[in-house]
Every structure is written in structure tokens, then in C-alpha cells.
Amino acid sequence: MALNFAKAEFVRAATKPADFLRDGLPQFVFAGRSNVGKSSVINRLVNRKNLAYVGNTPGKTTQINYFRIDNKAYLVDLPGYGYAKVSQAERDRWGKLMESYFQDEGEIITLGVLIVDIRHKPTADDITMHSWFRESGCPEIVVANKLDKLKKSQVQPALDLISQTLELTGRDILVPFSAEKGDGKDTVLGLLNDACRQN
After folding, report:
1. Which of 13, 65, 92, 183 is most exposed by smallest CB count within 10 Å?
2. Of 3, 71, 99, 81, which is closest to residue 38 (Cα–Cα)?
């Protein structure tokens, strides 16, 4: 039975490891740079305009936010990374929180979703996050957002650059996506449902 992603509700924000949810439900973990449109991708997947916060100032998600999907799984929104206007102390705090989450003994991640900007080569922070997903042993989808900003002829070269930079193999999944127009939405929802069934 497919998950009803329209049935989504905010559950809690974790600011320390004691707040992490470990109730055995699958967790789909979304990560991405502060200005990559992560909240917009999440909102597109659940058909809501404002489930995940979309702000004019990137870097507003400063904790790990849990959204329960259909009472059967969690969509986990990690703090956006790599935004320069945040203090070093705040960045360090986020970093420690993320490390604790990835190293949690409960092996709580079912599937990682790394969101990158299709128009740009993945950054050093993107590569680090990709490595964290790999090292955690969980499957990962790379979602290349902002597809609507490219001409058709630019798409394949852009995807090739992302694949090379992240050293993706034939087993890895790279999905061109547009939070604006909905391209790639059904593909990502299908992959999330598959991961839930296999969990």
C-alpha cells in the first residue's frame, strides 16, 4: 500500500540527540545546501505550500524537523548547510547535531535524499554530506533540483557533472527535479515508497 504523502504533519524539532525519534518507523532524510530549495522540494512532494518553512533568507532550518507521513514513516528535514551569513558557533552546533544523527546507534536512517542544484557543480559541503550518507550504509537518492532553470540541451551535461563530482556509480540514483513545476516528483515518491516497503 503506497504512502499517502498528502497526509503529512509536523511532529517535533530535535535540537539535541535526546530529541531524535527512534520508534522504528522508516525515516527519509532530506539534506541540502541552504539555498538549494530543500523546503520547496519537500512541499512539492507532500502537495503543501508551507509544510516545510520556505524563507527569503536561507539557513532558517536550525534543527532537525520531523514530519510524519501517513502515520507510517517520517520525512526528516536536516538543517541546510553552507550558508555564509550564519555565525561560526551556530555552524559548529549544526555540525555536531548532524554528526550525532548520522552516528546514532539506532541506525535510524532508512533512505538519504541529497538535494543539489542542477545548475552548479556540487560543493565541498555536498560531497561531505554524500559521504555521510554513504558511510551510514543507507541507500541514497540524489535529487538535482531547479531543472526548470535549464534549457533541455543543458540537462544531460549538468547531470554528468554531478555524477562525476559525487563519483556516482551505476547503482546510484540521480533524479532531475523541479520543485517549481513538479518534474521528477512521481519518481522520487516511487523511490520513497519502495524504501518503505523494503524496510
Report:
1. 92
2. 81
Q: How far apart are the first and last CA of the chain?
A: 14
Quote the pTM value.
0.92
pLDDT in tens, 39-65: 899 999 999 877 766 444 444 456 899
Give the whole-angstrom CA distance, residue 113 versus residue 143: 7
pLDDT over 80 (residue 194): yes
Cα torsion angle, 57, 59, 65, 70, sign: positive
Report CA Rg, the chain.
Answer: 16
Q: How far apart are CA 193 and CA 199, in angstroms?
A: 10
Question: What is the separation of C-alpha 129 from the centre of its chain, rounded to a whole number of angstroms?
Answer: 10
